[in-house]
Design a protein that fits this description.
By secondary structure, the chain is α/β, with parallel strands linked by helices. It is about 45% helix and about 15% strand. The chain folds into two domains: about 25-205 and about 410-420, 3-Deoxy-D-manno-octulosonic-acid transferase, N-terminal domain (Rossmann fold, 3-Layer(aba) Sandwich), CATH 3.40.50; about 215-405, Rossmann fold, CATH 3.40.50.2000. Strands 3-2-1-4-5-6-7 form a seven-stranded parallel sheet, with helices on both faces. Helix 3 (about 60-75) packs parallel to helix 4, helix 5 (about 110-120) packs across helix 6 and helix 6 packs parallel to helix 8. It is globular and about 65 Å long.
């Protein structure tokens, strides 16, 4: 009954959902496109190969899924992969990373007819959901059709668990329909169990984001970029990655103070969402600092700020800086991936809001590879000190890399969960 009421409410909200897509399309035109896919009308290529469906809601989950997708392609050569997401930026990442080696569309809305239409067309033998994108009708439909559902790299914060608890009549049956929750940490597994997941339905595999691979081509690109940005004066580089609204102003205020101590510093500022590129460019220009945009291919030799308004380069940027501030953390967004700079051995700075990466953050703080800044003043203070003391930077660099290396192996444990099902 609870799921029926949920479905009726979802159908009633469709006009509002359509208006929201239109509103978002004003800022990012890609939201105007491919609406049919959101109702299950996906395009598929005729193939007799069994299909593994992998769902990654947006950019972060897509990047986290890269090592898993590569491993599945190598291990199960007689299967095809169908990857879905919910956002245009996530879709762009799927297409740019995997090309035509996978099939791809937006995921269907969690409406009975849209889900049925999608499943009829794709006919998956397994659904792998990245992290915490749980939809009651989708999971129920998979259960009815005998399609096992694995939640991979699963995480569930205390805040999210409290939210799910309020709708337990929907959540508990949904969790009972899952095959396995492969949790990042024992705390995540316990939170899922507190919501109704059977104890036998969870296993702790660790965080597969630690299993990223920095290949030689990526390292070469980062090395060349660092050389270009440093220039003849060997200037230091501060990267502010995946910033959110309300955070850029704080970073720019800190940068103003840091420049008083380290005048040659170049700030590379990368907003999380493309629709904010122009807005952040205006903020940078108002500071009076010389600002250039990555998309313009203009030299940074005379610039104070480089606005990272390109897509798909952030991983390279992490390998081309002296310090990395990871955004979404000075505002209550929950933080973004602190593992990527750690893998490069880059000293990491964040704000205090880290609930999306709580375990990784604790490991990095405990290991000495990351510092938390409560506000803009602390960010300025920590950056100034680190940029002027190479020995501290090197100590943090080594600590961050050691934490990243020590926590690898989650991918193999996850594949061991998948293997008996396939």
């Amino acid at each position: 009954m609870a799921r029926l009421l949920y479905s009726v409410l979802f159908y009633c909200l469709l006009p509002a959902i359509g208006l929201r897509l239109l509103w978002r399309g004003l800022k990012s035109p890609n939201y105007f496109r491919r609406w049919a896919e959101r109702f299950g009308f996906c395009r598929i290529h005729n193939s007799e190969a069994p299909t593994i469906w992998l769902h990654a809601v947006s950019v972060g989950e897509t990047l986290a899924a890269v090592p898993l997708v590569r491993a599945l392609q190598e291990k199960y050569t007689n299967h095809k992969l169908f990857i879905t997401c919910m956002t245009p930026t996530g879709s762009d990442r799927v297409l740019s990373i995997f090309g035509d080696s996978v099939e791809h569309s937006y995921a269907p809305y969690d409406l009975p007819d849209a889900v049925a239409r999608f499943l009829n067309r794709v006919d998956p033998k397994l659904l792998i959901i990245m992290e915490t994108e749980l939809w009651p009708n989708t999971i129920a439909a998979c259960k009815r059709r005998g399609i096992p559902v694995i939640v991979a790299n699963a995480r569930l914060s205390e805040k999210s668990a409290r939210g799910y608890q309020r709708i337990s009549p929907i959540v508990a049956p949904m969790l009972n329909n899952l095959h396995t929750v492969a949790a990042q940490h024992i705390d995540d597994a316990r939170r899922f169990q507190s919501l109704g997941l059977p104890q036998s339905g969870s296993v702790v595999t660790g965080n597969i984001k630690f299993d990223l691979h920095l290949d030689q081509d990526l390292r070469a690109k980062a090395s060349q970029l660092l050389e270009d940005w440093r220039g003849i004066g060997n200037r230091p580089i501060l990267l502010a990655a995946s910033t959110h609204k309300g955070e850029d102003e704080l970073i720019l205020a800190a940068f103003t103070k840091i420049k008083m101590q380290v005048d040659s510093l170049l700030l590379v500022l990368v907003p999380r969402h493309p629709e904010r590129f122009n807005q952040v460019a205006e903020l940078c220009q108002k500071t009076g600092f010389t600002t250039v945009r990555r998309s313009s291919n203009v030299s940074t030799a005379g610039a104070d700020i480089l606005l990272g308004d390109s897509m798909g380069e952030l991983m390279t940027f992490f390998g081309a800086c002296d310090l990395a501030f990871v955004g979404g953390s000075l505002v209550p967004t929950g933080g973004h991936n602190v593992i990527e700079p750690a893998a490069w051995g880059v000293p990491i700075l964040t704000g205090p809001h880290l609930f999306n990466f709580s375990e990784a953050s604790e490991l990095l703080m405990g290991g000495g590879g990351m510092l938390i800044c409560q506000n803009s003043d602390e960010l300025a203070s920590h950056c100034s000190r680190l940029l002027q003391d190479e020995s501290i930077r090197q100590t943090m660099s080594l600590a961050a890399r050691q934490v990243a290396e020590a926590n690898r192996g989650a991918l193999d444990r996850l594949l061991a969960v998948i293997e008996p099902i396939i």
